[in-house]
Amino acid sequence: AGMKIYLSDKEKIYTYSITSVENVTPDRVDVINDREGVNEVTLVTCEDAAATSRTIVKGTLEGETSYKDAPKEILNAFSKTYNQMQL
């Protein structure tokens, strides 16, 4: 917990701080439900190619920055391609 998540609409960059990481079964759809009054992001990914488990990462909104004013190290993250699936 505490690591950062950066999301952007190319106008602003939204910074979230990770608050929890958990593994759940695929039937746990409740983990993506909105919580009233909480500005958070929920990331969901499969644990394996058979999709037998899900990793759920939640983060709370810390702030937002204009895209044009963001630090270079944050902007560089948006130019990378990520793919963790290995078959």
TrEMBL record:
SUPFAM superfamilies: Sortase. InterPro entries: Sortase, Sortase_dom-sf. GO terms for molecular function: hydrolase activity. The keyword Hydrolase applies. Keywords: Hydrolase. It comes from the Bacteria. This is Sortase. Pfam families: Sortase. Transmembrane segments: none annotated. The keyword Metal-binding does not apply.
